[in-house]
Amino acid sequence: MTQPARGVRRSYGVKAAPYGFLLPAAVLFVLFFALPIGYAIRLSFHKIEIKGLGLGKGAKSEVFAGLENYTSALTDPEFTAGALRVLGYGALVVPVMLGLALLFALLLDSERVRARSFARLAIFLPYAVPGVIAAVLWGFLYLPDVSPFHFLLDRLGLPRPDLMDGGPLYLAMANIAVWGGTGFNMIVIYTALRSLPAEIYEAAKLDGCSEFQIALRVKIPMVAPSLVLTFFFSVIATLQVFNEPTTLRPLTNGIPSTWSPLMKVYNDAFTGGNIHAASATAVILALATFVLSFALLRASNRRTAQGAGR
Amino acid sequence: MTGLTSPAPRTTAPAAGPTPGAAQGPPPAADAGTRGPRRTALLPTAALVLGALYCLLPVAWVLVAATKPGDALFSTFTFLPGTGLGDNVTDLTAYRDGIYWRWMLNSVLYAGLGAVLSTAVSALAGYALAVYRFPGREAFFNVMLTGVLMPPVILAIPQYLLLAEAGLTGTYASVLLPLILSPYGVYLGRVYAEAAIPMELVEAGRMDGAGEWRIFLRIALPMLSPGLVTIFLFQFVAIWNNFLLPFIMLGDDEKFPMTVGLFTLLKQGASQPALYTLVITGALLAIAPLIALFLVIQRFWSLDLLSGAVKS
Fold it and tell me: How far apart, in whole angstroms, are the C-alpha atoms of residue B241 and residue B286?
């Protein structure tokens, strides 16, 4: 593990060096990750006794509140409604997005498919479009007077659905996330596919496997670790959805200001001025993310059994 | 976190068969003539092209919509181009003495400076984690990686409050500083450093009497540069796309980045539909630089690097 000692002076320098290199990262981590997290946890167990303006100033009349903020957050119907909405939204986004990403990655990896470099770039393109702008673009495409879908439906004499309210809203919102996220995940999976040794396919081909069978039986199991990775990041990103619904709000009345739990956190903290309640909700969300992530990692580590981490 | 490190250890014999020409060249024509034996798979090709068109649809739309004069936006067929692009850009530039370009400049500043600093921090930390064996190495790395899991809002509220205590909210620094450390950047830095820097070279440098810092600057940094370009681009896009942090931190729209600026414009559009044309033109001008950037760099830089792939 440790470096063999090689002269006192140099060994001292070598020993201290890594800590020096890590210093900027460590300082930033403490200031902008650890400290804020600690502060949020502290806030979540306190409350303001006299209702005042929060936002950092009314800290004087702060009293210990125990779990009060947590119980009220968990029993708040707006929070549970938001959590359910996001779960429903995630149940649409994650499978569709990763399914498409896997499909496109496999197609890119197939010799007999044409237009691959064009498609690779085109599908990756939305990665370069900020979520806010993606929501603006799709938001306009959902407006009945602009939308080509509505134009088509009109020509066919069909009724024009409101894409930004009720059930269709989930589809509309999910579509923005799928559009924006498929490309990046495709690249991750495609990279894993390309790093597989070619001999594997040769063997499968000699055994008479079709391309489709190779994809299903050889490629997909071999890239399982990167599928887990993309799944993991997609779930986390979905739980954190904020930008797109926030951006769509000015275009419709169908999105409440607490549509997703994070929007509620923002709303409580900055519109309602109740930073303590907002912190409790935020901590609950962070815990949910952690539990979910570690459960996922556990499951995937057991599945792939890749030995100890480096 | 075994799952995260999986791409690195595999020996990357750049999978000779499947995709040699994937990185460059015009798509169909290049392959069609040179390699005869295998027929084109029609259905899969169609599926891939359909996916590509789906991804291009909104971009194509904004390209067309930005050419329409104000009232034509809602009255002419969506994909019928107009002739008003020049006028729209002039209107956008005139809007509140050119505040749009101010936002653009701010975005370039936040993303450019932020990404440079972020890359430097990631390079240093990644190098330390890859090259040295020291107590606390894995603990540091794992603690750092949990940062990836932190929802930004959860960090943003206390970050706002703490920066308010320091009197920094509403400044450029309040948007720049929290984004410098990127756990994913540190992770990539470590993966690239492990793959790119042979320990023998570091040892040789030590034999020659070079200090650790000098070894990093003169030997490691040049070898790391393709990876560092990737970290830079990743961070540039992440900060360029960021909305939440500036949305929370900034009140004065002179300091807004593009994303927040366009959002406020869109919000006002709800009562003044004339602004919609400005929003659409602004959206086009905002995505054009990044798309151009990716089109240019993909000639000499591989997208695969983004997921931690390391070519020999």
Answer: 10
β-pairing, A46-48 with A62-64? antiparallel
- Answer CATH for B97-307 from 1.25.40.10, 2.60.260.20, 2.60.40.420, 1.10.3720.10: 1.10.3720.10
- Rounded to the nearest 5 percent, the helix, strand and coil shares of chain A are 75, 0, 25
Determine the pLDDT at residue A60: 57
Q: Does B55 contact A183 at a Cβ distance shorter than 8 Å?
A: yes
The alpha-carbon gap from A231 to the nearest alpha carbon of chain B, in Å, equals 11
Q: Which of A43, A46, A136 to mutate to test the interface with B (most CBs of B within 10 A)?
A: A136
| Reported ipTM | 0.84
Q: How far is A106 from chain B (nearest CA, A)?
A: 10
pLDDT digits (tens, 9 = 90+) for B40-64: 788 999 999 999 999 999 999 999 9
Mutate to test the interface with A, among B138, B174, B212, B245 (most CBs of A within 10 A): B212
- Walk me through the domains of chain A, giving residue ranges and CATH numbers: 67-304 (1.10.3720.10)
Q: What is the pTM of this model?
A: 0.84
Report how far residue B160's alpha carbon sits from residue A35's, in angstroms, rounded to the nearest whole number: 12
Contacts of A97 (CB under 8 A, 6+ apart): A177, A178, A181, A182, A185, A234
> Nearest-CA residue of chain B relative to A196?
B15
Subunit contact B132:A104, Cβ cutoff 8 A? no
Q: Which residue has the higher pLDDT, A119 or B306?
A: A119
Contact B55/A179, CB-based, under 8 Å?
yes
Contact A225 B3 (CB under 8 A): yes
Q: What is the pLDDT of residues A103-158, one digit of tens each?
A: 999 999 888 888 888 999 999 999 989 999 999 999 988 888 777 777 777 777 77
